[in-house]
Specification:
mainly alpha; 2 helices
C-alpha cells in the first residue's frame, strides 16, 4: 500500500513540475496548480519534476518486481 501511494505522489509531482517548468519556459507563466499557492522558480519546478520521476520510477519498479515474483 505504501508503494502505491509513493507512485501516485510521484506521478502527481512529476506532472506538476513538468507543467510549471513548461509554462515558464514556453508560455507566459507556470501551468498547473502549484503556482496558485506558491511562487516557485523554474529550477524549483525542474527539481519537482526530477523528484517525481524518481518516486514514480521507484514505485513502478517495485510493482513490476512484485508482479514478477507472484
Amino acid at each position: 500500500m505504501k508503494n502505491e501511494a509513493l507512485t501516485v505522489i510521484g506521478w502527481i509531482t512529476l506532472v506538476q513540475g513538468g507543467l510549471g517548468a513548461g509554462g515558464r519556459l514556453f508560455g507566459d507563466g507556470p501551468w498547473g496548480l502549484l503556482h496558485k499557492w506558491w511562487d516557485i522558480p523554474t529550477a524549483g519546478y525542474l527539481v519537482l519534476f526530477a523528484l517525481g520521476a524518481a518516486l514514480a520510477g521507484y514505485g513502478e519498479t517495485v510493482k513490476a518486481r512484485r508482479k514478477a515474483t507472484n
